[in-house]
Structures are given as structure tokens and as C-alpha cells.
């Protein structure tokens, strides 16, 4: 029986041509001791040799190097990375609050769903503009604006990473578009009606929002040890907040670093809070939640509080449209009426932005009172 011939590689200048078992030809060359193979095989040996000559010419004129191979591979990978994949990578780069991560993922699944499966390199200026037009037509302008802001931030990061050359988000004003729906705080009379209609064991929660300006997650994470009762006032220390993500309560830091603060409360609000925290159930348990769920240990859900407690209270005030968050706006407005500067209001509400703090200060019906005060200026003053 004849011994089969060994297939040998043949030398083509400084490259090598090898005939494969399939009968096709493979071309390669060696550079600095490392072998580099052609990205395809060839029907004819002459074609394999032609690839080698072309590669060696590129090496000689500096048009090819091993680093370029890595760069080309990275560019190919970057070009095929989808927006959804890149967002997950971006989220892993920095520690973010669970609610923030969930919100970003919700935007990817929701308003950005059309763009999510596209490679980063396929998202052009026209693509973004067309997407934005569809979002505006859908009527959910505020949500679309948040989605655009996320898209712009992520693609800006992709530019810094070298994934894309320019950020295609060029729609002017898209990040600040809003539906125009405003939160209107209650009047003093409406707030009094809310307090009267709220069960005794939850009135302190209402006062903490309306007088101390606490967010829902800050108030429902308060423990007995966070409140100090003094002679005619209480001191409330906000050091944590709780968020609910996919049905799970997750205690953690406040929304912003400015959210960590200590707030004095006086008057009826202080009296109501003091009565609440002096209850027997807190006497030997400083770590107990001030406003737990019905089991006494779990966090109170806003939906549980909303129906029927908040629904009944706002209806009694003649404001069935009012969200609980309007009480925080009520606090900001009253601070301004009491003479607080915008910076002081920022501190009490735990804001990092003056612009945001100003949104919590609303015009009231005190025009006549203000005009009367102006008329009482000493004679000769400007």
C-alpha cells in the first residue's frame, strides 16, 4: 500500500502557503517571531501568494503592524456592541443607587427599546432625531426627555471610550422638555383638612413631609433614634432612605449627598412628631421604624398609604388631584414665606441644585398682603 504524501507548506518569499486537507490554500507570514494567518483560505495557490505579497508590502511601508490587528478587532467588536449591551457595561463602571439602575433599565426597555438592539455605530444623528419625533408624538414628553438624557450621557461615554467618533444626540432642548404638568401644593386651609382627615398614627408622617420637607423614602426609613425631642421642638436627622425596586424594599443612602441633614421642627408639627415617637413601642427599641407596615417591622409601602389614607385626606381637602409629594412643595413654599434664602431652602430640602430648590417655591394668594407691607415702608425710602 502506497504511503500518502505529506502535505508540505511552501515558502512564498517571507511568507508561507499551506495546502489544507480540503484542498484549499492557507497563507501566513511571520513578524517578530509571531505567525499571522490570512483571514480566509484560497482556491488557488497563486491567490494565497498574492495575499502574502500584499501583506509584506504593507509591513514595509508601515501600513500594517500587530497593534493594528488588535485595533481592528477592537473596532469590529465596538461596532457590533449594541446600545443595550453598552448600557449594562456603563452601569457596572460606577456604583449607583438601586432605584437609579432600575430606572435606567426601565428606560432601555421602554422608550429606548427601538434603539436598544442597534449597534452603537448604527445610531446616527438622523436615527436619534427620528426616534425623538416618535417619542414626542406619543405624548409622554417628560419620560422621553429622561430617556434622551440617558442616551446622550451613554453615547458621550462611548465617544470617550473610542467606541464611536461623535455623539449623535443633537436635538436642542430635548433634555429639558417637560409635559408642563405642575405640582400645586395645598393652601394652609387644605393642609389643615388633610391633617384632620389623617389617622392619628400617621399624622406625624404628614407633618414630616409638610414641615420638615422629607421625601417619602426618607420619612419611611426614619427610626426612633433619628428623632430627638426637646422642650418646644424636635430635631430630625435624615441619614438614610429606602427605595422599592421590583417589590423589594432596599434601605440605603439618601437620594443625594445633600439629603443627609438635620432639621428642626416647631409648633403643631413638633408636638405631633413628639407624641408619635414617645409611644411605648419605641421605648426599648431605638432602631424601630417610625412608620412600619401592618406587621410592625416592614417598611410602609406608598401604595398601601395611598389607599385609602391619602385618598381620603386629599379628598377631604378638596384636592383629589394632589400627590403626596405636593407636601414637600408646601414645605418649600412656607420656608420662602418665612424668609428663608434659596440656599437655606436647599439645605432643608436636601437639594444639590438651586434651580430644583426654586421649583419647590410657589406663588401664593398673598398679593394683597405683600402690597400692604410695601405701602407701610417709612416715608422717603426707595
Provide the fold topology.
Elements: E1 10-12, E2 15-19, E3 25-31, E4 34-37, H1 45-60, H2 66-80, H3 83-92, H4 98-109, H5 125-138, H6 141-160, H7 188-197, H8 200-210, H9 216-219, E5 227-229, E6 233-238, E7 241-245, E8 248-252, E9 261-266, H10 267-277, H11 280-283, H12 302-316, H13 326-337, H14 342-349, H15 354-359, H16 367-375
Antiparallel strand pairs: 1-2, 2-3, 3-4, 5-6, 6-9, 7-8
Q: Gyration radius, to the nearest Å?
A: 33 Å
The tally of strands reads: 9
At the first level of CATH, the class of the largest domain is Mainly Alpha
Shape: elongated
End-to-end distance, in Å? 120 Å
CATH architecture of the largest domain: Orthogonal Bundle
CATH T-level topology of the largest domain: hpI Integrase, Chain A
- Indicate how many domains the architecture comprises: 3
CATH superfamily of the largest domain: Intergrase catalytic core
Mean pLDDT: 85
Helix content: 40-55%
Taken in chain order, the helices and strands follow as EEEEHHHHHHHHHEEEEEHHHHHHH
Which strand-content bin applies to the residues?
5-15%
Q: How many helix segments?
A: 16
Question: Spatial order of the strands in the main sheet?
Answer: 1-2-3-4
Main β-sheet description: 4 strands, antiparallel
> Which runs of at least 5 residues are low in confidence (pLDDT < 50)?
none
Q: What structural class do you assign from the helix and strand content?
A: alpha+beta
